User: Fold these one by one.
Assistant:
Number 1:
Amino acid sequence: MKRSIVPFALFAAALAALPLAGDNHLVQQATFVCMYCALALSWNIIGGYAGYPSFATAAFVGLGSYAGALLQNAGVPMVLAWVLATLVTGLFAALLGYGLLRMKGHYFAVGSIAIVEVLRLVVSSWSGLTGGGEGLNLPILAGGPAFAGMVFLYAMLAVMVLAFAMTVLVDRGRLGFGLQCIQQNEDAADMVGVDVVRTKTAGFALSALFCGTVGAISASWVAYIAPTDAFNILTTLKVPVMVLLGGPGTVLGPVLGATSFVVIEQVVWARFLDYNQAALGIVVVLLVFFLPGGLLGRLRQRRPARTPQAGPGGAA
Amino acid sequence: MVYLQVLANGLTLGALYACLAVGFSLVWGVLNVINMLHGSMIILGGYLTYFAWLHWQVHPLVALLPVSALVFLLGWVLQAGLVNRLVHRPVLTTLTVTFGLDLVLYNAMNVLFDATPRRITLDLGTLALGDVVVAWDRILAFALALALTGLLYLVLRSSRAGRAIVAVRMDRDAAALMGIRIHRVYAMTFAIGAGLAGACGALMAMVFPVTTNLSGLLLGKAFVVCVIGGLGTVPGALLGGLVLGLVESFAGHWFGPQNAVLVGFLLMLGLLMTRPTGLLGRRGYE
């Protein structure tokens, strides 16, 4: 376990020190890294540990961003709005999980994508409350772009650290054990006394919680939200890919995956402006073919293989 | 009677939905793969038909078969070359791969054809039965959509390849023991799904403006139809398509067109939670 916490602490400290470099673009990229790490860590709880292919990430991000925006526009202070948006999203997911988690496999995947679409359509047509397709404006944070950039970097960094702490606790605790049992064989888990419904619902709610925070913070960051951006179907598909890239069901995998993905995406964007989606698609396909257990799986596979080679006869 | 008009609109739309989803449902049922490419394949069929009509004045009815054959080939190549290697992996893996391929196809179509909405205008006039008015091109698309769906049913019931597909759908391992080459059946199934998507795109281009941005929406319709009717059966897709067409048509009439799609999705979620095997509630074909 220490093997995971120490590298993560170093990584978080490096990100926290970035504003010292004084490059606003770099700070923005670091904020994206923190944001996707938090989302990937969250998804990993239900998708990695429990093995439920959830595509509801964008639904929770969108819900959080609208909850945060509406609260902030009603005069609630920014940070309190973020906290409340988190709670709203977690509660929503807990209630939703009760119905949604009865499904398995493809049906669960399709049901969870449908949640994104349903919320997007509701927000689009409820224009009295949400501004409909025109979206909502939020108050812009005073203090200039460099200051605002730093505030949002630290906010996202804090969410990432919280999501990581949650993952460590889940990984060590009963909940993580129960979720892993469910992944291996749900009926058997039920038989040996895992409260399947409760465990799955708790996992699902936890996987949504910090997505809501991320949504609320990014709404304040961009200072404008609209249905198609908030409930972005690409986000919902990108986050699982990040976890697959890093190594699902591990503590450090999502962080590794999300960070590499953001870096790859940046390179791809810069090189292939017209073909960036195609390039991303090719990366995704190659990844599934050549890195089935994720980057972390690759690293772990090699480690035991090296030990015998260290002996005198291991000159292979 | 305004309701008769709404009913007629719903039925013509529903037949297109059935045709749109039947290939997707077949692939899902037989391969246990959610083909995220399906929406883009429909658009590809629509675009190819449109450009054949625009540049070489090929009538869409003539273009239907060649276009469908081209998309069929694309499906064969993708399945035999890529997806077959992963077909027994978990849901998330195959879904991710087809999503990656979809990004490539979508991007390629945007660059090659750009995303302008395109529609073939045949100007066939309208048919008036009392107060109900239906455009002839819609009736044509309706009839062809039903014909294609029926054709698939016949192929599955009476051809050798069709029986092999049904056998693999029922029990993969038993089918393999009977000497059926499953990976070839998978490629065939995926290609049939793709070919139907292409044909459906050709029909759509005659009725609606087609654009790459529609591909996600069409994929969503395919999901909903599959869940309503049940997976992997032709009658299920037909029923699901017609139900969805009617539900959207009537919901649009009562709650406004912007909420029609929402009602469709809510119906799907409700069914998923209560009757995950669909309205027909059967597994397998026949």
Note: The interface with chain A takes residues 28, 32, 34, 82, 85-86, 89-93, 95-97, 99-104, 106-108, 111, 216, 220, 223-224, 227, 258-259, 261-262, 265-266, 268-269, 272-273, 276 of chain B (CB under 8 Å).
Number 2:
Amino acid sequence: MADGSDNAISLRGLGRDYGDRPALAGVDLELPEGASLAVLGPNGSGKSTLLRVLATLLRPSRGEVRVLGCSLPGESWKLRGRVGYLGHQPLLYEDLTGRENLHFQARLYGLDDETAAARIESDLEILGMRRRADYRVSDYSAGMKQRIAIARAVLHRPRLLLLDEPDSNLDPQGREAVRALIGRPGELAWKGEAPVTRVAVSHEPERARAEADQVLELKIGAAA
Amino acid sequence: MTSSRRAFAAIVGKDLRTELRTMRSLPAMILFAVTTFIIFRYGLDRTALSGSLASGVIWTTLLFAAVLGINRIFLPEREEGGFDSFRLAPVDRPVLFAAKAAVLFLYLVVLEAIVVPVFAVFFLENWTGLLPLIVILLATNLGFAALGTLISSMAVNSRARDLLVPLLLLPLVVPLMIAATSATGPLLEPAGPGYDKFGTWLLVLGLYDGVFCLVGYAVFDFLLED
């Protein structure tokens, strides 16, 4: 790690407010590199907010946040391109096809055309989307959008993967396809590289506890 | 960091491809401009215009047609998560400003390539001023594009963006319009183009363009912050 610690994520007293309303308060966490974390909690407990803070999309209101050795928000620019983020919104352009969206992302992340094409075709095959990749995203079902969104999130082979309910909108085959691409928690490692740290929001506590290395349970406005 | 040139090309390519596919902005801008010329023709009850009146008609029409495009330039980024997608990527944020301004500039060039000849057919007896007018159009487009992109990025997250864009844009664009109309008027005289203070107004346009390109480039990073 850049800061010499073995933790991919280190949070001390993390808080985030929306106006006067606290969405997150007093979250502490140490997550080693390569480990997996399941984030649990009821609606409105700040799970998505936590992921957006870790992805540098939201600034923390208070507390210390270190992600992959970068202190946030000050060093958030160093983190760009090292995090894969899947939120509630698929972050796909509706008027482009699935394949065009992925090629656009690849260019933003600086992948050369050859690497990008190989990776995109391979990921689309695994996700069962290769034949439908030339449809416009606006013509996709919610599940198909989710599959392409996951391909987008991992296209640049990030060191940290932040997944907000990755199974949402997916049928059983879709879940299997996604697992074939990003593995079970703790299993994911890109070719020739160290295991990827993974944080996933889940609404299935039993499965999350069984699979993840650590569990963070959030209550409304605070960590449990 | 990804090469800025590569990211710039990717964003411009994406926007142009989307526009070609959906035709959301340009046809509306063109239709608005042509309809406005028709209204001017019958409203003024004139079949020929020249000098400052011709200049006023053409620039008023182009300004309001440009507002239609400016209003929509960041809409996919807001509604489809493009801002988040861009903020996650290892790309300098002002690249998005530069790419959007370039797209808006191209929209304006296409708009003018179609509607200025229409204007000439409707109103001009002497077309020789159209060639030097291209220089004024390009210089003004740059200012429109830089300022429009900046204003649009500020207004896009507001529910009242359709109102905010003209409210913020129109006062700021007054110096640009003064320079553009003043430089255009002598070019559209019936006796042929005159170049009185042409260089001075071109310099004013250049300064305005430079200021708003620099301001946009400098502050865009902050505008994208949470």
Note: The CA atoms of residues 132 and 140 of chain A lie 9 Å apart.
